[in-house]
Amino acid sequence: MRLGIDVGGTFTDLLLHDADGGRTWRAKTPTTPQDQSIGILNGIRLISDIAGVEAGSIETILHGTTVATNAVLEGKGARVGLLVTKGFEYTLHLAKSWTPGPLFGWIIMDKPEPLAALEDTRGIVERLDAQGNVIEALDIEQATAAIEDLCASGIEALTISLMHAYANPAHERALLAIVEERFPDLPVSLSSSVLPEFREYDRTITTVMNDYVRPIMRRYLDRIETSLSAEDVHSRLHIVRSDGGLMSAAAAAERPVHTVLSGPAGGVTSTAQIGRQTGRSKLLAFDMGGTSTDVSVIIDGQPTISRSTEVGLFPAKVPTLDVRSVGAGGGSIADVSPLTKSLRVGPRSAGAMPGPVCYSRGGTEPTVSDANVVLGYLPPRLLGGGMALDVEGARGAIGRLGEDLGLAPEPTAKGILAIANEVMLGALRVVTVQRGLDPRDFGIVAFGGAGPLHANAMAEVLGCYPVVVPTHPGVMSALGFLQSEFKNEFVETFIRSVGAVPADAVASRFTDLVARADTWLVEQAVDLADRRIVRTIDMRYEQQGFEISVEMDADTAASGDLTQAIADFEAIHERLYGVRFDVPTELVALRVTALGAVPTLETKPAATDAATLDEALIETRPAWFDDGWIDTPNYDRDRLPAGARITGPAIIRQYDSTAVLLPRHWAEIDTHGNILIWPAAKESAQ
Question: Where in this chain does the record put each Hydantoinase A/oxoprolinase domain (predicted)?
C-alpha cells in the first residue's frame, strides 16, 4: 500500500495504490491552513474508509508540501543568523543589481528585506581565493567571539557562507565545529554543503532560505509523524523534491529548500507519464486548483529541469521542474476595481476557509467556482455526492457583483471566467510563445480540481489539441508522487579551461561524487537493483555567463576524457542558440545525480458495465453556452466505455473533477481511459 498526498490551497488530495491488487482509490478533503497535518490525518482516515483497509496497512506515504514555499511568501520563517567573510556583510543586500521592469523599474521597486537581517550578520576574519587556497587564515578567537555574540542573541538557525567555500570548505567546517560545541541544538547550514557552487549571492541566499524554513519544516514533519503514530500508522514518510524526485522526511528536514516547488512537481511527472502512455511527445501541463494554476512544458516526453527558481522575490538555486504559477484558481475572488470600476479576478483567494460561497463554509465573496456553478458547469453535488453546493448562494453573490456592473448574473459569471482564463493563458504563453514554441504543436493535459473545467477554453484560444483529461485529474499530483523516483544531486565546482584539465583530475572528482551518491542511496534505503547514477558536466565558452549541462557515460567519466563532451556541448549550444563559436571551451562543474527507482504504477480506467453512451448519462441540465441556456447532457465519467464519442456541449462528471466540453467540439475515450477533446473541424483523432 502506497499513498500519495498533495496538500493544496483548498483541498488535500490523496491517492492510495495497492500494488498487490493493482487497485487505486482517491479522496479529497478540505485543507486545514492553520495546520496542514490535520487535513492530512483527516484524508488518511477518509481514504482508508473508502478503500476498506486499516490505515496501519499503508507502507509508504509520499507527500508534496507547500510549507517551505508559504513560509517564504508570507515572511513567516525563522530568524536566521549569517556568518560571512569579513567585508562581505552586505551580500544579501547587494544581490545581483537586478531591478524589475525594462524602464525605470527601480523607481517603483519594492525591494524585500533580506531573509537574514544585517543586525544578525557577522563578518569572520578569513579569506580563500577562487581555487580554495588560503589567503588569510581563519581567526579562531575572533570567530568564536562573533559566534558567541550572534548565537546568544536569540537566532533560531545559523547560515555559514564564506567566500569561495565551494572550492575549500575547511573554514566553514571549522566554524561549524565551534557552533556545535557551544550551541549543539542550533540548526546550522553550510553553503559548501547546501550549494557547493560559485556565484556568491546565489549560494548565500539559497543556504539562508534553507535555514529560514528549516525549523518550520522540522516542526511540521514532527507533527505529521506524531499524528501518524497516534493513529497507529507507521508508514515510511517521503517528501517530494522540487525536481520531482523523492527524499526521506529526515533529509527534507535538513534540506527543506529542495521542496520549494514540491506541490506542482507531481502533476508534471504524471503528465510526462501520460505522454509516454499515449505516444504524445509534446504536451502542456495545465494544473488548476483552488488557489493557483501551474503550467509547464513536456518536450520529447521529458519535463524541463531548471537549475534555479524564484520563491516570491527571492531566487533559489536548486534543481526544479520548470513550472510557472499564476494566482488564478477556483477560489480566486472576483470584485470591481474601485479605481477603474472594471471587473477583476484574483490573485486574492478564498482558499479552503472560508472558501467559495457555494461551499457553504462562510464565504461571502464571489469566486471562479461560484461562476462555474451559476453557469451550470458544476453540478449541485461534488465528491460523489458527498459535498452539496449552495447554488442559490453562489447565484446571489454573483448577482450582487453584477449589479455593480449593470449585468445579469450569467454575463457576470461568463466575464469572471473570461478574465480568469486570460490570466492562465498568459502563463501558457510564457512557457510556449515567449520561448519560441508554437502551442499548436502541443496537446494540453488538464488536471487539478478545476483544470478540466477550463482546459477546453484554453485550447480553443491557443489551438493546442487534443485536450487530455486523465483518469484521475483531481488527484493527479498525488498520483505523480507515486510515480516519482528517489533523486539527489551532488556537484563540485571545477572551473578550468578544458585544454588545461588533466584527465585524472576529472576522473577522481567523478569517483568522489559517485561515492557520495551511493552513500545517499543507501541512507534512503534504495535497493541496489533500483539504483542508477547519471554523470554530467557543466560547460561554457570562455567568458560566457551561463553554462550547459552535458551528460557523460560511466566509462568516459571514469577515464576523464572530455573529447566527446566538448563535441556534445558545441552541438547542444548550436541547437539551443543557432550558433557555435571558435573559442576555447571551459569546464565549470561536475555533477552526479543519484536515482532510485520505485514500483511502477499504471492507472487503469474504471471497469464499466455500460456499453453505450446513453447508459452513462446521469441527467440533462441547462448550462450557459454562446450567451444562452442549452439543455446539456451530464455523463458519468466512470461509466463511459472505451471508444465512446461525445458531441459538445456536454458535462462529464466524476468524483474528483468535472470536465466541460464546449460547443463545436467532440471527445472520445481512448483505450487508457483518457478523455481526448478535439475541435469539430478535426473529424478524426488520427
Answer: 203-488
| Per-chain mean pLDDT for the chain | 89
The per-residue pLDDT for 505 is: 92
Residues 6+ apart with CB under 8 A from 631: 620, 621, 622
CATH number for the domain spanning 227: value is: 3.30.420.40
> What cell does 626 get?
454562446
In a domain, 289, yes or no: no
Dihedral sign from CA coordinates of 460, 463, 466, 468: negative
Contact (CB, 8 A) for 260 and 242: yes
User: End of a domain among 532, 563, 596?
Assistant: 596
Residue with cell 520505485: 598
134, 226: one domain = no
**What's the CA gap between 589 and 166, in Å, rounded?**
11
Q: How far apart are CA 174 and CA 186, in angstroms?
A: 16
Q: Are residues 85 and 63 in the same domain?
A: no
The answer to whether residue 311 is domain-embedded is no
190 shares a domain with 85: yes
List the one residue out of 154, 85, 153 whose CA is nearest residue 122: 85
- 462, three cell numbers: 491557443
Rounded CA separation 296/432 (Å): 9
**Which CATH number does the domain housing residue 161 bear?**
3.40.50
Domain that holds residue 551: 486-596
Angle between helices 170-182 and 140-151 (to 10 degrees): 50
Same domain, 50 and 144: no
For residue 399, the Cα-to-chain-centroid distance in whole angstroms is: 36
What's the DSSP call for residue 367? B
**Closest among 84, 306, 114, 308 to 212, alpha carbons compared:** 114
E strands, 199-256, in order: 236-240, 246-248
Cα diameter, the chain: 83
pLDDT in tens, 101-154: 665 555 566 678 899 999 999 999 999 999 899 999 999 999 999 999 999 999
Per-residue pLDDT tens digits for 375-431: 999 999 887 777 899 999 999 999 999 998 999 999 999 999 999 999 999 889 988
What are the strands, taking DSSP E only, across 411-470? 443-447, 467-469
pLDDT at 83: 97
Same domain, 559 and 576: yes
Nearest to 292 by CA among 126, 380, 420, 387: 420
Residue 21, pLDDT > 80, answer no
- Whether the pTM exceeds 0.70: the reply is yes
Count structural domains, the chain: 3
